[in-house]
Amino acid sequence: MTKQIHLAAHFPGVNNTTVWSDPRSGSQIDFDSFRHLAQTAERGKFDFFFLAEGLRLREMKGRIHDLDVVGRPESLTVLAALSAVTTRLGLAATVNSTFNEPYEVARRLASLDHLSGGRAAWNVVTSWDAFTGENFRRGGYLAETDRYTRAAEFLQTARELWDSWAPDAVTAADGQFIRPGGISTFHHDGRHFTITGQFNVPRPPQGHPVIIQAGDSDEGRDFAASSADVIFSRHSKLEEGRAFYRDVKSRLPRYGRRPGDLKILPAVTYVLGDTQEDAAERAAEIRRAQVSPQTAISFLEGVWGRDLSAYDPDGPLPDLEPDLGPGVSEGRAQFRGDRGAVAAKWRALAEEKNLSIRELVIETAAPQTFVGTAASVAEEINTFVQTDAADGFIFVPHLTPGGLDDLVDQVVPLLQEKGVFRADYTGPTLRDHLGLTKELS
User: What residue stretches are annotated with the Luciferase-like domain (predicted)?
Assistant: First the structure.
């Protein structure tokens, strides 16, 4: 059976995705940037528009990382504003479960779902570093296993709050009268949360907002299989995608779920050209723009854990071995793993291909997914989905705010001609777009 492709748009943020030097690059804060990208996605009949979250300005060598985005508006506030200038596009916010409370998050998401007519989604994430925790009263951070148990209980508690209102609790069209018995007192007594009371927002139009999860660890995959509607994957290569797809989908039956209950959407990029050669040239230019000489040294410092500012980014890797102590980067997840293993892998790759520092970082930290003509990219997207490497994709453009224009104008019509992507929305809610059932208590 031919599968229908799901598409979503990510507003680019931190790391080296955005090419700030491009004269077409716009503001990261001005509402018009969010509006343009969201309305372009809606014009392309995308399922949803996705915003990441940043709870602290990241640092490098004890100073604010000046190659990063300085200032990221709070996601749910932006999406509430976008609900007034879009009509069908889903609106997905990343909201942290480590440094928030279930009642407040459930209330804000239910409000967004009402304001948008059933288009809200929540990307449930955890926080892994004490550096971010310093911004919050509780401080510190939880062990990885505790982060997921807290996240699971956080989500369970939010669902209990949404379910405390019966679907027909409000009997008047203007929401003025509450049917007797339409609201239940909630009581949750668990390891992480003990709360009792009455929820003050009616049940969301979708029952529950769509739940997104982005973890790739074994615990993260289980959490997605048990609780999520969408998993935001990093596996954008065909064979890796198929292996991830098989693994996560195979976990669903143990939670009483079917394959269609969870959509797997890798984060991807694209570059179009009039010919394959033209696209490849443009892709190479974009990768060099994404990895400036300063960015290259910054990435190497993050792995090596040392100040390498004296090294030539167009020269060879330093002879120094990495310092595997605390490191020089704060708040950057890509440097939290086994840096010694990464350094060894990078050194082997640099020797094999005779790469300079900058060329190495371009090779490893600026990957591109779909590069080609509109026709070849459309064919490749379809192949991924039809061969079970993904259910669709979340596109992360390299320009703000016009980075999706070419995709929507040139590639989407070809997918529609193939009959694998909708010509128009068939329902008003995000659950309709994703082919998910409405959540009922």
Answer: 24-387
